[in-house]
Amino acid sequence: MLDKKKTVFHWSSGKDSALALHQLLQKEEIEVSHLVTTINQSLQRVTMHGTPVDLVKRQLASIDLPFSFIELPENPSMEVYEECMKDHMQKLKSEGITHAAFGDIFLEDLKAYRENEMKALGFDCQFPLWKKDTRTLIHEFIELGFKAITVCVNDELGSKFLGRQIDNEFLNNLPYSIDPCGENGEFHTFCYDGPIFKKPIEFKLGEKVKRSYPEPSGDGHVNFWFIDLM
Fold this sequence. Notes:
The protein has helices at residues 15-25, 53-63, 78-93, 108-120, 134-143, 168-173, and strands at 5-10, 30-40, 45-46, 67-72, 99-101, 124-126, 147-154, 187-193, 205-214, 221-229. It is of the alpha/beta class.
């Protein structure tokens, strides 16, 4: 009898998460036992993506797997972030979960950070999309029948790219400098339909808002556009 790897998947609500989860669910040796999402406690939205928690709950209910939220204060320090993550992951470990999975594709520093943090907590890591060509991945996402829209874009893309369907027209309109999966943080998405969902998630588009954040280096600010979902 196959001894399956009980796995918690870190769900962001976007396209890379959806495709990575889909691939994990095809693997006989893996049992996805839980989904976990980090959210801004005061805003009740997914960190960076800005997706409202109520919509994420509808997503997760449609996926039909156990889930939970890691609630973070607004603009937490790394120490606070790591403590919140540690507390939550230790609870999942006590339930017999031994592996943690992520939808990262090619950011080496982020992968190394996740592996070190999870190893310290007693988890092995899974990265089902790691080092795969991002143009191939986004076409696979579309061809599988997944549907997603952009909910956050950087200043280089601008507000005209907000609320856009992730489809071939979108890809053809992307500037050459933008990664097709937005893996460098150029854009984030909300996935609302596809093979992992029992039914599509209904939503409406709201207003567009521009927000400014300090650069991690402390030198200047970076701007992002968000579109509200309801």
